[in-house]
Amino acid sequence: MNLSRPAVHPVEAPPLTEAAIQNGPRLRMKDIQGMPGTRGGLILRLCQFVFSFISLCVMASTSDFHEATAFCYLVLAVGFQSLWSLSLAVLDIYAILVKRSLRSNIIMRLFTIGDGITSTLTFAAACASAGITVLIGNDLNRCAVNHCTRFETATAMAFISWFAISPSFLLNFWSLASQ
């Protein structure tokens, strides 16, 4: 069998032009903590996962969350948020262990779009659940019958999860725009 083998041939660097000498070489932006593939990004992803998972578990532990559409929407949104954040946390762990940068254009677009969608879904679900919780607790005075404390806890955890995903989205969007 005749197999071709890759060969590396030294090539001279092209001569520098006058503009390249004056402006210096073009450098890529350093990885800022909080961006994908950094320890700060991993911490943000883990916080997103933990708070959304707590919100999911607390809301799913009530027996009557399915009676309000907003609570069902919250369970769906934080469930999706949990899966998204956990999968990106695993990807961040991999990138940190093998010292690989996650700064390619396609990956940054995927992260930005995914973070934008999940943050919008989580924020909308948390707002809707907060409205229903206020309606049940303050306007209808039915907290004795319902699980108001659990509803409020799940809604608060969803808001905290949204607060954790907002920096990720903004950093990814900024990085994508600066490329």
Give a verbal description of the structure.
The chain is an all-alpha fold. It is built from five helices and no strands. The radius of gyration is 23 Å and the shape is elongated.
Q: How many strands in all?
A: 0
What general form does the structure show? Answer: elongated
**N- to C-terminal distance:** 45 Å
Helicity level, as a percent range?
A: 55-70%
Question: Total helix count?
Answer: 5
Structural class: mainly alpha
Keywords:
179 residues, mainly alpha, 0% strand
In short, what is this structure?
The protein is an all-alpha fold and 179 residues long.
Write the layout of secondary structure elements.
Elements: H1 18-23, H2 39-60, H3 69-97, H4 105-139, H5 148-177
Helix pairs in contact: 2-3, 2-5, 3-4, 3-5, 4-5
